[in-house]
Amino acid sequence: MKGLDMDKEVEILKTAFESSYDGIHILDNQGNTLYINNACTRIEGISREEAMTKTIKELVANGVYSESVTLKVLETKEPTTIIQTAKNGNQLLSTGTPTFKEDGSIDKIVVNSRDITDLNELKRELSVKEELAKQYQIELELLKQQHGKQPDFIAKSPAMQKIIRLALNVAKVDSTVLITGESGVGKGLLAEFIHNNSNCAQGPFIKIDCSSIPESLFESELFGYEKGAFTGAEKTGKAGLLELANGGTVFLDEIGEMPLSMQPKLMRAIQHREIVPVGGKLVKKLELRIIAATNVELTQKVREKEFREDLYYRLNVVPIRIPALRERREDILPLTLRLTEKLNKHYGFCKQLTEEVKDLLLEYEWPGNIRELENLIERILVSTQEDVIDVKYLPVHLLRGKTGAFPFDDMGTEDYKTALAKYDHHLLKLAIEREGSIPKAADRLGIDATTIRRKLDKYENLLK
Ligand SMILES: Nc1ncnc2c1ncn2[C@@H]1O[C@H](COP(=O)(O)OP(=O)(O)OP(=O)(O)O)[C@@H](O)[C@H]1O
C-alpha cells in the first residue's frame, strides 16, 4: 500500500471485504459487531441491522447461530474453527481469530465463514456414487462370471450382493471360510464362486461330502494310503482327496457330520497344511484353500461335545451365512426367470409363467430354498403341455401359500385307501423335491430310501 493515502487504503480494503466470497465478521471483545460483509449476511441469513444491534450472545439466544465461534475465542483466546448451522439451515465452517491489545487482552475477533452446505451435499452425492460404483463392480464381476464358469449365479437381493462382495474379498486371500445356511441355499455354489475368483482358480476344486463317507474310510479317503496299508487297499497306494485338492480348494460339505474320531486329524492337517497317508511315514506338504459348509448349528454341536471346539474356531475364520430364500425374496423371480430360460433352451420349449404364478412363487416360504424352486420349476415345465403355465399346474401346498398345510381340504370322491395313497405320494414327492434326493428325503422323514422307492413304484401304478 506504499504511496496510497489512508482513505484510499480503507476504500481498497472495503472493496476487497465486500467482494469476498467468504463471510467476514469483525466483533469487539464484548461480542458487538463492528463490521459484517455482504457475503456474511447472505450465507448466514442475517440482516446487517440485526447483526449491528445485537450482541453475539443475543444472536445465539435468538437462534441465529447454533453456536458461536466468537464466544469460544473469547473463552480460549486462541484461533478456533467450528462447524455451525445458521438459522437459514446453511452449514458454516467458521474460523475466529483474536487480535490482541498491548496488555495481552483481546481487542477484536475476526470471523471468517464459508458456506459448506454445497460441499456437504457433494460429499453425500459422492458417497452415493461410490456405493453405486461398488454395486456396479459386483454386477461386473457377476457379468464376467456369466461369460465364464458360473453363468447361473443369481444375486439380486441386497443380502446376496453383500455376500458376493465379501466373497470376492476373501477370494483374494487364502483364509479358511465357513459357509452356513439352510439346505439348498447355495453353499456349494458360493464355495465354487470363491474358488473361481481366487488366485488358485486354475487349480482343482474338490468337494468332499462329509455326510456320505463311512467313518471307517474317512482317513484313507482324506489322506490317502501307501501301498499295502490295509487289506483290500490298491497295490499302488492311493492319493487322498486333500492331496488331489493341492494347489486348489477343498470344499468340506456338511462338515458337521464329520466323525469325532477324524476331527483331530483334520485339525492337524488344516493347521500345518500337511498330511501323512495311512500306512506311510512321509509327511506331504499341501498348499490349498479350505472352505467348509454346514446347515446344522455347529456351536450347538460344540456344546454337545459332538464337534471339537478347536476345529470349529480353525474353520470359522471368515464366517459367511447365506440367508434362506424367504429372507431375500428379491432373488425369487430372477432365479425363476433364469431357470425357465435354461430349461426352455435345453428342451427347445417356449414356456412362460403367468403373473399369478409368479405372485404365488413370491409368497411361498420355500423351506427347501433354491433347490426346491429349481425342482418345482423343472417339474411344472416338463409336465405341462401348454406354453403359458398358470396356477392350476402348481402343487396344492403352493396354492395355499403355507408350508406343510394339509393339501386335501375336501374329501373328494376317493375311497379311504386311495386318498391315503394320494397323500403319502404327495408327501414323498415333496420331501424329495425339498431335499434334492431320495436318500436325503429318507433321512429327513426317518425312513429307508428303499421304502420310499418301493412306495413310489406302488403309487405310480395305483394312481395312474
Ligand atoms: N445364487 C444362486 N443362483 C443360481 N442358482 C443357485 C444359487 N444358489 C443355489 N443355486 C442352485 O440351487 C441348488 C442348491 O444349491 P447348493 O447345492 O449349492 O446348496 P447347498 O446350500 O450347498 O445345499 P445342501 O446344504 O443341501 O448341500 C443348486 O442346483 C444350485 O445350483
Would you write up a description of this structure?
The structure is a single chain. By secondary structure, the protein is of the alpha/beta class. It has 3 domains: 14-115, Beta-Lactamase, CATH 3.30.450.20; 149-323, P-loop containing nucleotide triphosphate hydrolases (Rossmann fold); 326-462, Helicase, Ruva Protein, domain 3 (Orthogonal Bundle), CATH 1.10.8.60. It contains 20 helices and 16 strands. The protein has helices spanning 6-18, 38-44, 48-53, 56-61, 69-76, 117-146, 158-171, 187-196, 218-223, 241-244, 263-272, 298-303, 309-315, 332-347, 355-363, 369-382, 396-399, 416-435, 438-445, 449-462; strands at residues 23-28, 33-36, 80-85, 91-100, 106-115, 177-180, 205-209, 224-225, 238-239, 249-253, 274-275, 284-285, 289-294, 318-321, 352-353, 388-389. The protein has a 5-stranded antiparallel sheet with strand order 2-1-5-4-3. It has a 5-stranded parallel sheet with strand order 7-10-13-6-14. β1 (23-28) and β2 (33-36) form a beta hairpin. It is elongated, with a radius of gyration of 36 Å. It binds adenosine-5'-triphosphate (ATP). Adenosine-5'-triphosphate is lined by residues 152-155, 181, 183-189, 253, 293, 295, 335, 370-371, 374, 436. Residues 153-382 form the Sigma-54 factor interaction domain. Keywords: ATP-binding, Coiled coil, DNA-binding, Nucleotide-binding, Transcription, Transcription regulation. GO terms for molecular function: ATP binding; sequence-specific DNA binding.
